[in-house]
Design brief:
This protein has a domain of 50 residues. Helices cover 69% and strands 0% of the residues. It has four helices and no strands. 3% of the residues are buried. About 6% of the residues have low confidence.
């Protein structure tokens, strides 16, 4: 499940990068590229608002998926018992009966 969520996060990052790169920092953006013809036909006059909303949605999706992906990660084995295991391993070796 983690692989699927990671793939969706990567896809959302690519879409977010595209949305950001299409925007013009001075406010012209996509609406300034197509001119007045597309303003009448497609309603690009409000493309800045749509791009801004798309940016916020993609940021929210990425953040939410990152938080959700933590729930599906495997928990490390050992946990609190790891310190007890280290203490048990440090015991001295048994003495040999000998000569």
């Amino acid at each position: 499940m983690t692989v699927v969520i990671t793939g969706i996060i990567i896809l959302a990052c690519i879409i977010l990068a595209f949305i950001i790169l299409v925007q013009n920092p001075k406010g012209g953006g996509l609406s300034g590229t197509f001119g007045s013809v597309s303003t009448q036909v497609m309603g690009v006059k409000q493309s800045g608002d749509i791009m801004e909303k798309g940016t916020w949605v993609m940021i929210s999706v990425i953040g939410g998926l990152c938080i959700i992906s933590v729930m599906f990660m495997a928990k490390p084995e050992g946990g609190d018992n790891s310190s007890k295991a280290k203490q048990n391993n440090s015991a001295p070796a048994p003495a040999k009966k000998g000569k």
